[in-house]
Amino acid sequence: MVITQTHKKYPYRKRNRLRVWDYSTPHWYYVTICTQNHRELFGEIIKGKMVLNEYGKIADKYWREIPDHFSDIRLDEYIIMPNHIHGIIIIEDPSEVRNGHARSVRRQHQKLPVTIGSFKSAISRTINKMQNDFKFQWLKSYYDHIIRDEKSLDNIRLYIRENSLSWETDKNNPENLKY
Q: Labelling 40: which of 54, 132, 137, 146 has CA 20 to 30 A away?
């Protein structure tokens, strides 16, 4: 039997974050961030390689700039896919004080959610300022996995590096989504 944590407002919705984990803790985190409705907005896979379009290049630029905005964040492997981003974020030694506020157990003040939220917001703002006939949106949340050992890290790095090779069977490929 699988036990899932639920959200009090949405009791049938599975929690995305570990309830007892402080996401400001120095650690390695694997994240996946998807576009709303899995729209393929960042480019396309051609012969097993991801080819970024204008929006994909914006996402790539902002991803690489994360450490410029958060001094205790480093980046490892990542890939921008047609409708999602996989990446490894490393939180180094966060300060006890951030933005003038003491460390908080509230999710919206923890380092990983703040980093992902800022990244998503910057991309949305930039793309939506361009003249578009649609509003760019992300899925509300994101997937994260706390990397606990070297074997897991190696497997995740390999998955990220080879993700574009398996696009045809990828669970985030709109053709494979099960609603």
A: 146
CB 114 within 8 A of CB 45: no
Residue of 145, 177, 141 whose CA lies nearest to 38: 177
Per domain, the residue ranges of the chain are: 27-164
pTM, full prediction: 0.81
CATH code of the region 27-164:
3.30.70.1290
| Sheet strands side by side (includes 84-91) | 73-80, 84-91, 27-34, 143-147
Flag whether pLDDT at 101 surpasses 50: no
Q: How confident is the model at residue 3 (pLDDT cuts 50, 70, 90)?
A: very low
The candidate with the shortest Cα–Cα distance to 157, out of 167, 147, 166, 143, is 147
β-bridge partners, 43 = 52
Classify 22 in phi/psi space as left (phi over 0), alpha (psi -120 to 50) or beta. beta
